[in-house]
Amino acid sequence: MTAHDLPEEENLLTHTVTDEEIGRRLDLLAADVFSLTRSEAARHITEGNLTVNGEERQKRYAARAGDTLLFAPPPPLPSDVLPEDIPLDIVYEDDDLLVINKASGMVVHPAPGNPNGTLVNALLYHCGDSLSGIGGTVRPGIVHRIDKDTSGLLVVAKNDDSHRALSAQLEGHHIRREYRALVTGGFGEDEGTVDAPIGRHPVDRKRMAIVPAGEGRAREAVTHYRVLERFGQISYLSLELETGRTHQIRVHMSSRGHALLGDTLYGGGRTTFEKRHPSLFDGQCLHATSLTFTHPRTEETVTFHSPLPENFEKALHLLREEVN
Predict the structure, then answer these.
(1) How far apart are the C-alpha atoms of 91 and 279, rounded to whole Å?
(2) What is the pLDDT of residue 76?
(3) Please, what sign has the CA dihedral across residues 10, 16, 21, 22?
(4) Of 91, 116, 174, 177, which one has the greatest count of Cβ atoms within 10 A?
(5) 186 touches 233 (CB < 8 A)
(6) Spans in the chain with pLDDT lower than 70
(7) Cα–Cα distance between 154 and 101 in angstroms, integer?
(8) Domains detected in the chain
(9) According to the model, what pLDDT value does residue 213 have?
(10) Phi, psi of 184 (to 5 degrees)
(11) Confidence at residue 120, expressed as pLDDT on a 0 to 100 scale
(12) Predicted local confidence at residue 3, as pLDDT
């Protein structure tokens, strides 16, 4: 494909390489930018659907300053992902989008080890064909994700126009996402910011890690936090994502010595409180409590809230009792 063969503008997604992304492999960068798996990104590069400045490149191409990625998603193929009648906690729904309150333990989209029982399976049953195709057949409608054992709010696109608009807001840091968490350790300050690049752990592929800026796998990551309550060596936080990297809150908090309660991947061992109340911590104690964005059709600012899950509320109640 050459610059003269560019797809129709309405079908084209674009991304200009930032300073932090210079040197990243094309398939890895495109996977992050356009919410694809690495294999999907590689396939689109091979098939000519994903180009750089209108020119075809190899998947190992290293991104350069000023490059513009151009992605023309092909019509979605019939999906092997089957609809499943799984109850959904729908906070809001219209013709363009849904806001879902995801339960802890639910995987967002099918992957090895989790081929079914996911949010996508449930959405296919609920929405039928009314989901955007930009995420491909495995991730229809999925604009952003939250971890399996994290609960709370996420927005799902029901058509491609909504998906493009919401993805642009996400990339431009215009979607406000507030989380609540219980973490280990006390804080001397009431609020702060962790600004540290995140990339895939060099040894353990299941983990993410803080990596030096400038390395190929490093991606900018910024988390703002505020202490809501202190319980000795356990703190209750409000956290706001400026960026949305995989495991971002968990990695950033752990890197500062404040691992999330219940987080076996990034934690340093269970606290005395967790050992006393093990039934409350089936996964990390993290909840996406608030979501604010501009509605892609009405252009109004909308905000949605989700109450804390029962186990989170009970943990807070017990901590307050113990302190008092």
Answers:
(1) 27
(2) 54
(3) positive
(4) 177
(5) yes
(6) 1-11, 75-79, 214-217, 324
(7) 7
(8) 3-71 (3.10.290.10), 90-171 (3.30.2350.10), 176-290+312-323 (3.30.2350.10)
(9) 76
(10) -80, 150
(11) 92
(12) 35
Catalytic residue, candidates 27, 67, 96, 147: 147
User: In angstroms, rounded to a whole number, what is the distance separating the alpha carbons of residues 303 and 324?
Assistant: 34
Kindly report the three-state secondary structure assignment for every residue of the chain.
CCHHHCCCHHHCEEEECCHHHCCCEHHHHHHHHCCCCHHHHHHHHHCCCEEECCECCCCCCECCCCCEEEECCCCCCCCCCCCCCCCCCEEEECCCEEEEEECCCCCCCCECCECCCCHHHHHHHHHCCCCCCCCCCCCCCECCCCCCCCEEEEEEECCHHHHHHHHHHHHCCCCEEEEEEEEECCCCCCEEEEECCEEECCCCCCCEEECCCCCCCCECCEEEEEEEEEECCEEEEEEEECCCCCCHHHHHHHHCCCCECCCCCCCCCCCHHHHHCHHHCCCCCEEEEEEEEECCCCCCEEEEECCCCHHHHHHHHHHHHHHC
Report pLDDT for 92: 98
Whether 147 is a known active-site residue: answer yes
Give the pTM.
Answer: 0.77
Structure-block tokens of residue 292? 């604010």
